[in-house]
Amino acid sequence: MVTPAEAAAAVRHHYDVGDDFYALWLDRSMTYSCAMPDSPDDTLDAAQDRKLRFHLDAIGDARHVLDVGCGWGSVLQRLSGRGARAVGLTLSPRQAAYVGSRGYPGVSVRIEHWLHHEPAAPYDGIVSIGAFEHFAAPGDDKVAVYRDFFTRCRGWLREEGVLSLQTIAYANMSATDASEFMRQEIFPDADLPTLAEITAAAEGIFEVQSVHNGRMAYAWTCEQWARRLRARRAEAIEVAGREVVARYERYLKLSALGFRMGKIGLLRIVLRPYRNGFFR
């Protein structure tokens, strides 16, 4: 699997380009994952808010929540706003500092890999958006890596808890067809899961309650990001440099194309732990 040190290096490579750079083309909540538009003319802000509500609705009225891969804290902000206690895990010092500077009541952020997480008390809900696809490296026994994650999540959750997971996945493409540019320049050391690998890894640990395919939603999201980056290209070059901007423009274009062609997909999966092997 991707070791904690390798994962941290990959995260720094991608996210430590700078908060100011991402703020130019993400939505106001700084949510860097697939949105949920309800029409082609939807706004990015509204579509991202709808996605966040999807995951929060999935975990219900959970009062103690873990966010694995918390990013710039859009889920944590909403949890704080409804009076929940929340812990966010990130491997980016920049993101941790950003969330910490907001002073959200009831929220703590740890620069910590999920392998090292030891909660002080069980969680009512776990949310993980856009982190799962970075857990395994090419050549890994991916099912074993994912099963380790699910086993740990099961141990962290109360019996009535819920895990709401969002991940990019291979669709009509295998790992051997993956873009070397994406692997080397954008997401080093990452290998996407397939739906079959995820369900095999969860078998006997979590019941899959629902699966949503957001492939076209992610194509739309990447196109929105690309349009916003183009509109502020001069500012982006000042902040991050011409080479970085060109790399992100290529990445967003290739991603949107991959989703539209069905090479990659976007899965939103809601899972509930089995209780001693059976539901009561």
Q: Please, could you describe this protein's structure?
A:
Keywords: Lipid metabolism, Methyltransferase, S-adenosyl-L-methionine, Transferase. It holds the Pfam family CMAS. It comes from Amycolatopsis tucumanensis. It is built from eleven helices and seven strands. Helices cover 45% and strands 20% of the residues. The mean pLDDT is 92. By secondary structure, it is α/β, with parallel strands linked by helices. It has helices spanning 4-15, 19-23, 44-58, 74-81, 93-102, 142-156, 180-186, 195-202, 215-231, 233-240, 242-261; strands spanning 64-68, 85-90, 107-111, 123-129, 157-170, 206-213, 264-273. β4, α6 (142-156) and β5 (157-170) form a beta-alpha-beta unit. It has a seven-stranded mixed sheet with strand order 3-2-1-4-5-7-6, sandwiched between helices.
Q: What is the strand arrangement across the widest sheet?
A: 3-2-1-4-5-7-6
The percent range for strand residues is: 15-25%
Q: From the alpha carbons, calculate the radius of gyration and give it in angstroms.
A: 18 Å
Task: List low-pLDDT spans.
Answer: none
Approximate helicity band: 40-55%
Mean pLDDT: 92
Approximate shape: globular
Helices, by number, come to 11
Largest sheet geometry: 7 strands, mixed
**What is the SS-derived class?**
alpha/beta
Run of helices and strands: HHHEHEHEEHEHHEHHHE
How many strands in all?
7
Amino- and carboxy-terminal Cα gap: 35 Å
Pfam families: CMAS
InterPro entries: CFA/CMAS, CMAS, SAM-dependent_MTases_sf
Keywords: Lipid metabolism, Methyltransferase, S-adenosyl-L-methionine, Transferase
Protein name: Cyclopropane-fatty-acyl-phospholipid synthase family protein
